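User: I'm putting together notes for a lab meeting next week and I want to include a structural view of one of the chains we've been expressing. I don't have a solved structure, so I'd like a prediction I can at least talk through. The sequence is below, exactly as it appears in our construct file.
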Amino acid sequence: MLGLKQVLEERWHNSPERVVRGSDNTEVRQTPEGYHLFRNSNAVSAEWLQEMGADVQGTPVWSNFEVER
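Assistant: Thanks for the context. Below is the predicted structure for the 69-residue chain, given as structure tokens.
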């Protein structure tokens, strides 16, 4: 099984769509899953945190992430 970092790097390098945002000159790539109301950047961040072993509680759409030791 691939680690999260390797999966994201492969997705980045294999993405056919490469766009540079004019506002800050940042290169972005399109995600194969797409985004919508209940799958936004907060939800994806929560998924990544869970893959790294974090306990994610609540609704990530309106996230208020806290890291506890």
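A couple of points you could mention at the meeting. The first helix runs from residue 4 to 14. The mean pLDDT is 84.

User: Perfect, that's what I needed.
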